[in-house]
Design goal:
4 domains, Beta-Lactamase, elongated, 8-stranded mixed β-barrel, single chain, alpha/beta, binds ligand C2E, binds magnesium ion, Rossmann fold
């Protein structure tokens, strides 16, 4: 959570109203409402400024109206003398002279807005000020912060410079000199080259070209970032924004230099509180986006400038958290952060963007292959186990890579596409990276469409249930029950199998709605056969219903189950929920009590797709499930595949020890059936034994079958 940024407007009420509108304007287009959304805007009368500001340090951006030009400057001066480095936007009356403006900047105004500015200009100025409030108002009281940083942050804020290309002369404000380490040089001797010489050599040419472009009127505005020498080997990131005053070719370029080091992450000696993830010390998503925005702008001036955004996600982090506890989980995240930082070069950004989500901004790279090789070195770094509280923990990750392209206007779009690629990497099993491809975007749009239609389709009666028979396969084959399998009668695409919509529903709470529908309707539709029939051994039939992990972990599930049983008269022992192995193990802490409560109600719980989900034996004993269903991947190649035969055999003996029944899915031929029966499996399901049957045909199927 980032702190609230307070914007305090001192001036007439009309100005406040204008800014309040501007704040909304700014929040929307930035699209970062949730990160920077906590902006609070306040109005105070001009006379109260000085006393209020000093009492309320948390008011971090001041908008000051200065009608007569003069009073405002005194106020700024007074504030600056207290050492407060908050951004101050000075709103002046129209027609202030250039000299007056420059005086205001030197006094310590961060930005000047000429009266009559448009809402867009106000919004842009506010955006800059709020970002600056995040980045510059930092660590002032931190121990060990050098005098110079204190001077930069606590002093007059940003530095101001002008450059006249005609004679290459520059004029620098005191703050600019402090930032640049040129306190002693006199204006008369200074040229642009003196300043450029203090830039990182990789940045010099580019910055000079950009400045020249502005001076020649080729670029509409100045907006670039670079590294500025800070001590013998350290650099700080600076942002230079400005414009051309006067005619192209003969005018003067005025610019404000802002220290954005905290925003550039890795090498920052000062980290902004609100922009830093407290656990790992990495910058957060806001910073990543802000730096990516600079890179996007950079690409606009220089097409050859390449950069990439990589989204990273730890595989099965929740499980590590559950297994070893949060302290170890936190330790792991810190360890991961360190290894990530070691894998990138200075100037790149590594940010923590979510609980176990990280992102990297790789700058100045040549091609996608470079980005992939950084990801490969991350993989190498992560391959070694983490040693945490006496445990050796292995942790793989998935990554999505996106290269900057000219169609990206906003940094959020890059992060979005990196996340889409990441999603693909994850759904292909994790522990891999995936480069973004445009069709993923199409797929994401389609998925969204599907989600919207499905949301309507559930109450709109478009879901259908099929029931696939289950048989006991030890001794004579007997009907043991049915598994309910959902389908969707899509408004245009026909009857869709679950693979087409369940994964989409699982990405949101829609799966809970869908699951609730299945639970209620499967019980209602199957009640006549489930409650009324027994198999030929006199055993009651069992109805199996699939429950997605998200739904299983939802607190309302137990009640839904109880309600479905009550409404349909199905007895608890005739109902069995199927939850995939990974669904149970990923949140084992919640799963253990959930399974226990269901079992106490008398409802069975079966581990579906068993063998694919990295179960830990110790959890399996604690989970108190009633049965295991062996994943069909192990059945497909039976009996020829020796390893798979052994796996099924091992699962059966494990189940015996734990007192669990074993079901096998995907039986398609007799050889498979005989093999699993010989290995001791109790129950079978598959095309050989019976296809899924539309619910309205089950009665007829039963009539035929029960007569046999
Ligand atoms: P599952 O629970 O493992 O279900 C078994 C799947 O195997 C079904 O696919 C079934 O039609 C298919 N199958 C049955 N016999 C054979 C066979 O001999 N060979 C092969 N290759 N496949 C066979 P279906 O109906 O497409 O469902 C796929 C998955 O979708 C299910 O896998 C389950 O994970 C999920 N699913 C289905 N219905 C629901 C539901 O109501 N809720 C939730 N959360 N998931 C569901
Ligand atoms: Mg199933
Ligand atoms: Mg299954």
């Amino acid at each position: 959570m980032n702190p609230v940024v307070h914007i305090m407007v001192a001036g007439q009420k009309a100005l406040y109203d204008m800014f309040e509108r501007a704040t909304h304007q700014w929040l929307c287009p930035l699209g970062a409402g949730d990160e920077l959304g906590r902006v609070h805007i306040d109005w105070i009368p001009a006379v109260a400024v000085e006393s209020t500001i000093q009492r309320q340090m948390e008011h971090r951006v001041l908008v000051l109206e200065d009608d007569r030009f003069g009073e405002g400057l005194k106020t700024i001066d007074a504030i600056r003398r207290t050492g407060l480095g908050i951004p101050i936007l000075l709103v002046t009356r129209p027609g202030a002279t250039r000299q007056q403006l420059r005086r205001a900047i030197t006094a310590g105004a961060t930005e000047i807005i000429a009266g009559g500015a448009s809402a867009d200009q106000l919004a842009a100025a506010l955006e800059r000020a709020v970002v600056r409030a995040h980045t510059t108002f930092v660590g002032v009281h931190r121990e060990g912060t050098s005098e110079r940083i204190l001077a930069v942050i606590g002093g007059a804020g940003d530095g101001f410079m002008t450059w006249t290309p005609r004679d290459d002369g520059v004029e620098l404000s005191p703050a600019f000199r402090v930032q640049t380490g040129m306190e002693l040089a006199s204006d008369a001797e200074l040229t642009l080259a003196d300043w450029l010489a203090r830039l990182h050599e990789d940045d010099r040419d580019r910055v000079r070209r950009t400045l020249q472009g502005v001076a020649d009127g080729i670029l509409p505005a100045l907006d670039c970032h670079y590294r500025l020498a800070f001590g013998p080997s350290a650099y700080r990131w600076m942002l230079l924004r400005g414009r051309l005053d006067g005619a192209a070719g003969s005018g003067t370029v005025s610019a404000v230099q802002t220290d954005i080091t905290a925003g550039s992450g890795v090498m920052g000696e000062v980290a902004a509180e609100g922009l830093r993830d407290p656990l790992t010390g990495l910058p957060n998503r806001v910073v990543l986006l802000s730096r990516a925005a600079q890179c996007v702008r950079e690409r606009r001036t220089d097409e050859s400038y390449q950069f990439a955004v990589v989204a990273l996600d730890l595989d099965r982090f929740a499980r590590i958290n559950d297994s070893f506890g949060h302290v170890v989980g936190d330790e792991l995240l810190r360890g991961v952060a360190k290894r990530l930082l070691r894998s990138v070069k200075a100037g790149d950004v590594v940010a923590r963007t979510g609980s176990d989500d990280f992102a990297m901004l790789l700058t100045g790279i040549g091609s996608v292959a470079d980005a992939e090789s950084v990801v490969a070195s991350v993989a190498e770094a992560m391959a070694k186990p983490f040693s945490l509280a006496g445990h050796q923990v292995f942790c793989s990750f998935s990554a999505g890579i996106v290269m900057a392209r000219s169609r990206y206007d906003r940094p959020e779009e890059l992060l979005r596409d990196a996340s889409l690629a990441l999603r693909r990497a994850r759904s292909s099993g994790g522990d891999r990276s995936q480069v973004f491809e445009t069709n993923m975007h199409m797929n994401a749009v389609n998925d969204q469409m599907t989600e919207i239609l499905l949301k309507r389709g559930i109450p709109g009666d478009q879901l259908r249930l099929h029931f696939q028979p289950l048989f006991s396969i030890q001794g004579p084959r007997r009907l043991a029950g049915f598994e309910a399998l959902v389908r969707w009668q899509h408004p245009t695409r026909g009857l869709l199998p679950p693979a087409e919509f369940i994964p989409i529903a699982e990405d949101s709470d829609l799966i809970i709605e869908l699951g609730a529908w299945v639970l209620a309707h499967a019980c209602a539709q199957a009640a006549p056969w489930i409650s009324g029939l027994t198999n030929r051994e006199g055993r009651p039939l069992v109805l199996n219903i699939n429950i997605a992990a998200r739904h299983f972990n939802h607190p309302g599930l137990l009640q839904e189950v109880a309600r479905a049983l009550e409404a349909t008269g199905i007895r608890p022992e005739n109902l069995q929920l199927e939850i995939t192995e990974s669904g149970l193990m990923d949140h084992v802490g919640i799963a253990i009590p959930n399974v226990r409560r269901l079992r106490e109600m008398g409802v069975g719980v079966q581990v579906d797709d068993f063998g694919t989900g990295y179960s830990s034996l110790s959890y399996l004993t604690q989970l108190q499930v009633s049965a295991l269903k062996v994943d069909r991947a192990f059945i497909k190649m039976l009996p020829e595949n020796h390893a798979h035969m052994q796996i099924v055999e091992a699962i059966v003996s494990l189940a015996r020890i734990l007192g669990l029944a074993v079901t096998v899915e995907g039986i398609e031929n007799l050889r498979q059936l005989n093999a699993v029966a010989d290995l001791g499996c109790d129950c079978g399901q598959g095309h050989l034994l019976g296809e899924p049957i539309p619910s309205e045909e089950v009665e007829a199927w039963l009539d035929r079958h029960m007569k046999l």
